[in-house]
Design goal:
Strand content: under 5%
Structural class: mainly alpha
Radius of gyration: 21 Å
Distance between the termini: 12 Å
CATH architecture: Up-down Bundle
Number of domains: 1
Mean pLDDT: 79
Helix content: over 70%
Shape: globular
């Protein structure tokens, strides 16, 4: 379903204050991936930890894949004290931010060589709190816009993506600049980032709770009724609404779509450092450039998806995402050429933003508002399962290939093929689903 809205009208939705609140929460969502992702990988690589072990640290990201198991708590359970002052969603966000802050403060006191198990435990704690926080943030985003605000919902998905990359790439450049440009150690960089977390806590406190478009929470007399409504009904409702064949096909697509990108992302920092790029190069090109490229193309991607439709946007974005991985294979053959790195991160940022906006809009489309947090967490968790659990073996794959980075990146480009074949097979029913959804909104 395409949009007939004039292009210049599309930009007016970004004057809506709710859009910028979603952007801020996107920043908060992406930031923990710096603490336990690129920053931790660089620290481990510099002290000589093997690629396979660095890859296995990615197991902590499985928390993002199983957060659907406790997502009903975010929908139903009240946080004492915080609930009264900040409401359901923000109370959970604040609880998680305080947990992330405590774990990050602990990392500032650890040595990654002698305390590696404690480092791994703190990384897991951050991942669990961050994954729980994402449930509340995603629910807040979906509930912020009414069922009649399709364009704002699409723009919200774009700004959530732009915010996530701002937190991951924009703020993620800080520790690399600190370690290369000063005499600070990685523990000192974690100390600086604690102040960033403090600023995020203040931001959440300053925003307003989203209650306008949330269905009323029913009251239950028996715990069995609560269990049925909270855990069983969100799943059964999805399958009844979609039908078993389409429902399973969509879940398979969600699981497979981001695997290639995740394999590349998990080993990218190790690759940069092994190939000869400095921490400053990583900060400038992999972080700062990617940050702005992703923001720009996330916003443009929302417009393109409105014109093309979500299904065609996913198909086009998936093909482009796969092709962009070949740029890194080129770098592996040439060496640490910053001009080539600049081209690679621009192309990769463009394709990642486009495909992610379409992906977020797609799984948002599948949610019933009566089970917003639970169903969105279920879909997002399934997508993260492929990204995090399987990609934790990326270091083993590189070692198995005897450090042949070119072949590794070619393999990551091929990994998107199964999901695109599924999307093609389901294209007609998915297009009908999207058209019906658009007719209901209009």
């Amino acid at each position: 379903m395409t949009s007939s809205q004039p292009w210049y009208k599309d930009f007016s939705i970004y004057r809506e204050p709710r859009i910028w609140v979603i952007f801020g929460f996107g920043v908060i969502s992406g930031f923990p991936w710096v603490l336990i992702g690129s920053m931790l990988s660089a620290w481990l690589q510099e002290v000589g930890v093997d690629r396979s072990a660095i890859g296995l640290f990615g197991v902590v990201f499985v928390a993002y894949s199983v957060n659907a198991l406790w997502s009903p708590l975010v929908d139903r359970v009240k946080v004492p004290k915080l609930q009264r002052w900040f409401g359901q969603r923000r109370a959970w966000m604040l609880l998680c931010l305080f947990g992330i802050l405590a774990a990050t403060l602990t990392l500032t006191q650890l040595d990654v060589v002698t305390d590696i198990w404690w480092v791994a435990l703190m990384a897991l704690v951050i991942a669990i709190f961050s994954a729980t926080q994402d449930v509340a943030i995603d629910a807040y985003r979906i509930e912020t816009f009414g069922p009649h605000e399709a364009r704002l919902q699409s723009a919200g998905a774009a700004m959530a993506t732009a915010g996530w990359w701002s937190g991951y790439s924009g703020l993620g450049a800080i520790p690399f600049f600190l370690v290369d440009g000063t005499s600070l150690f990685w523990q000192d960089a974690y100390t600086v980032l604690c102040f960033v977390i403090g600023a995020q806590i203040l931001f959440v406190m300053a925003t307003r709770e989203s209650t306008r478009y949330r269905p009323a929470i029913p009251q239950f007399n028996r715990w069995q009724d609560w269990l049925l409504s909270t855990l069983v009904e969100p799943i059964t409702e999805y399958f009844k609404r979609s039908g078993w064949q389409l429902a399973l096909g969509m879940l398979a697509f969600i699981f497979l779509f981001k695997i290639g990108e995740a394999f590349l992302g998990r080993m990218s920092i190790v690759f940069y450092k092994e190939i000869g790029f400095s921490n400053d190069d990583i900060a400038v090109y992999s972080k700062m450039v990617t940050w702005w490229v992703t923001i720009v193309f996330a916003i443009l991607g929302s417009f393109v998806n409105l014109k093309l439709g979500i299904v065609r946007g996913l198909l086009t974005g998936g093909i482009a995402m796969s092709a962009s991985n070949l740029m890194f294979a080129w770098i592996a053959g040439v060496g640490p050429n910053t001009n080539l790195l600049l081209a690679a991160v621009i192309i990769d940022g463009f394709t990642a933003a486009w495909s992610t906006v379409a992906f977020v809009a797609f799984i948002s489309l599948l949610c019933n508002r009566a089970f917003t947090a639970t169903q969105y967490a279920l879909f997002a968790s399934l997508g993260n399962l492929g990204r995090t659990l399987l990609s934790s073996y990326s270091g083993y794959v590189v070692n198995w290939l005897n450090g042949d980075w070119q072949l590794f990146f070619i393999l990551t480009a091929i990994m998107v093929t199964p999901s695109l074949l599924i999307l093609l097979a389901l294209r007609k029913p998915l297009t009908r689903l999207e058209q019906n959804y658009q007719r209901e909104l209009n």
